[in-house]
Design brief:
Layout lengths: L14 H20 L5 H14 L2 E2 H11 L8 H13 L3 E6 L2 E6 L1 H10 L15 H22 L2 H23 L2
Antiparallel strand pairs: 1-3, 2-3
Helix pairs in contact: 1-6, 2-4, 2-5, 3-4
């Protein structure tokens, strides 16, 4: 990780503050890497699902996907606009220019395509992501680390010992999940 820890590492100043800063850096890297990545088919499915509700322009589509995914997925313009062009080339959507903006809407063929998908969306629990714990497990781990850092900063020595024991027990229980048949 090179220079990703605060100056002086965990040895300089208050070690808990250093740990907290390192956790914040890790969180921001996690959010950038994990929070915005979805497959190409997911962008397509999301665009079709949104346009089934109402015509939209590209920025609205990006914003709606981010909002409906709870902020965990914000597709880039570089993935949404080529998808819109592809869908137009396939005859599934049409574009109408007004006030310098293209507004996209489904064609009859596009509505048929949406009907075939069964209404599932990439941001819904029954959506196309293969791993339901893709963001839930890392998020839970990060929240646990936040709680541990808070106890480390403000807790008494007894509270810190209790927190260490609770985390050790949680670790053992999590490994036991993997050991189950």
């Amino acid at each position: 990780m090179g220079n990703s820890f605060p100056a002086g590492g965990f040895g300089g100043g208050n070690p808990v503050d250093g740990m907290w800063q390192a956790m914040e850096q890790l969180r921001s890297k996690f959010e950038k890497r994990v929070g915005t990545r979805m497959g190409r088919g997911d962008v397509r499915a999301a665009v079709l699902a949104l346009l089934a509700e109402q015509p939209m322009h590209g920025y609205q589509i990006i914003h709606e996907i981010e909002e409906r995914s709870g902020g965990s997925w914000k597709p880039s313009a570089g993935s949404v606009y080529p998808t819109l062009q592809l869908l137009a080339d396939e005859g599934l959507i049409s574009a109408e220019e007004s006030n310098g903006r293209k507004t996209y809407s489904l064609t009859d063929a596009g509505r048929d395509e949406v009907a075939k998908s069964g209404g599932s969306t990439p941001w819904s629990p029954d959506g196309s992501t293969d791993d339901p714990g893709f963001t839930a497990l890392p998020k839970a781990g990060f929240e646990l680390a936040q709680a541990a850092a808070q106890v480390g900063r403000t807790g008494s020595p007894e509270q810190i010992q209790q927190a260490v024991a609770a985390i050790d027990e949680a670790r053992r229980r999590i490994y036991s999940i993997l050991a189950q048949d």
